[in-house]
Amino acid sequence: MKASYTTHFGLRLSGFLLLTVCLLQSQASARHGFFHGCGVLEEVDGCLLFKTDAGNSRYFVLDTYGEFQAGDTVFVNGRKDFRCDVECTAADGCLHNRTISCQPRRHMQRQIVVRPVPGGDVGPMIRNFHGMVVDSIAAERTFLSEFPDTVSIESVLSTLQDDPGVSFAQPNYEVGLPEVFQVSQSFPDEERPVHMLGESPGPYYGDGGGYTINADSANLFSTGEGVVVVVIDNGIAISHPLFENALAGSGYDLLDNDTIPEEEPGVLYGHGTFVAGIIKRIAPDCNILPIRVFDTEGFAGSFLIADAIYLAISDSVKADVINMSFGTYEDNAVIRMAIDAARDSGVTLVAAPGNDASAQVSFPSGYPGVISVAALDSLELLADFSNYGPHIDVCAPGVLVYSALVGEYEWGYWSGTSFSAPMAAGVCALIRADQPHMPPFAVEETIRTTARTRLLSITIRPPDFHYGYGLVDAFRAMLSLHCGDTDNSGEVDLSDGLYLIDYVYHNGPPPQPIERTGDVNHSGSVDYRDVQILMDYLYYGGQGCRCR
């Protein structure tokens, strides 16, 4: 869900080298004081100042305020300068801003989501306020109602919330793709390489993110075959060659109410395609099912999000994994209940925490049972834009990831937590393909306990406030499921013990498919101690394997 701080360049660059230089310069400036996020304009000691919302609040002078005034909540992208000369003593510094924009709509105007208690009927009450039901999730008895401009939505909401016959009533909160609010864009690969399965484009199959999380080694155990990964997003480029014979049916478009979830030109054109491409890179044989709910501006109502989640767990779809590269800071009942239903049905859920460099919890990534994935840069440090906090489970690469795009160029680079989340979703698909009946909490536990805590620049102690339990490691996750299965039969039994004895004492063939399956005590070598542990586990109820 997080976006990068890269800017829209005034010059059209040709060649990957120049593009990379500009991106690195942009990211360097981000590390040296770039800011993007929301805040409030306040009048302090006669000065109009911008007060940041995230973390430790500070007051800044902006270069320009446009038509905004005190009391307005705004989004600002700019360079922080704590040494600037300012007359207002209350200011901590200046923000040399590139953009200032109004607060996004918090909810779809004139709409309320309401659910009656069992046996209850909210129809008469809605009609009393001259409203009408415009949509419903019938199986959940949840209704989307709309009211005319002459009616006070606040009054309707208050009345419904106080009624004992109503389980919950809430505004139809607006949910956004996180990159909408950031200086974020994809950078197309101008060479437009032809797709050759497993070979081309080179930057796709050799993407540093896949290498960082050990996806290729994990694919020796699992490729995600047979697993359905639902991507709730703004659609997908159905005709992209990467997705040939890779979709689980045609998908769904809940905006147009049809089965053609094709992306439409607009803000973040290519977002859903890019996300789906990352999942296919990590779990190449999984089946993607796209559900389009986000409009061309990158927004969707929370009711439609919930509807998509219920559709994903229905008998017509039967999702194994759901990727949710979107979020809102509004905790709301309709999405929370859908998440609970999905988790209870055995679906593994993965979400992006957001791109505001903030510890504020976004949803659905903050809900229990949802794997929240922060973004790392190429140095395996938290990306400048990535949200963080106690709700983060793990982290994954999210800067300059290479994947599929739509439009004139079909491949490119993009940054954001929207793209770290599908890396983890791909690993979940590998796990579910190997262990089809593993419950969501066990998948999450596997992802957490096998995450790498020794990163390139730092070593973390989980749970870490910024990095969660560490960097997703697909190979270690799969290895943990096969530890002790030295003959690669799918079970740990006597034949594995005999296989290991033959290898250790009689120079037999190494454990297959990877020698580390025999290193059950994680010592770095396969020896007599591994034989003792494995036999103790098989015959005496010992602790078993620890291949991590």
Task: State the share of residues found in helices, binned by percent.
Answer: 25-40%
Q: What amount of the residues lies in strands?
A: 15-25%
Tell me about the largest β-sheet.
Answer: 7 strands, parallel
What count of helical segments does DSSP give? 14
Task: State the fourth-level CATH superfamily of the largest domain.
Answer: Peptidase S8/S53 domain
- CATH topology description of the largest domain: Rossmann fold
Report Rg.
Answer: 25 Å
Describe the structure.
With 548 residues, this protein is an alpha/beta fold. It folds into four domains: 33-102, OB fold (Dihydrolipoamide Acetyltransferase, E2P); 107-176, Peptidase S8 propeptide/proteinase inhibitor I9 (Alpha-Beta Plaits, 2-Layer Sandwich), CATH 3.30.70.80; 202-475, Peptidase S8/S53 domain (Rossmann fold, 3-Layer(aba) Sandwich), CATH 3.40.50.200; 483-540, Dockerin domain (Type 1 dockerin domain). It contains 14 helices and 20 strands. It has helices at 16-31, 123-128, 153-162, 202-205, 208-212, 215-218, 271-282, 302-312, 333-344, 417-434, 440-449, 474-482, 494-506, 528-540, and strands at 34-44, 47-52, 59-62, 73-81, 93-102, 107-116, 132-137, 142-146, 166-176, 187-188, 228-233, 252-253, 287-292, 299-301, 321-324, 348-351, 370-376, 394-397, 401-404, 411-414. The strands form four sheets. Strands 12-13-11-15-16-17-18 form a seven-stranded parallel beta sheet, sandwiched between helices. A five-stranded mixed beta barrel has the order 1-2-3-5-4. A five-stranded antiparallel beta sheet has the order 7-8-6-9-14. A hairpin with a 2-residue loop joins β1 (34-44) and β2. α7 (271-282) runs parallel beside α10 (417-434). The chain starts with 15 loop residues before the first helix and ends in an 8-residue tail after the last helix.
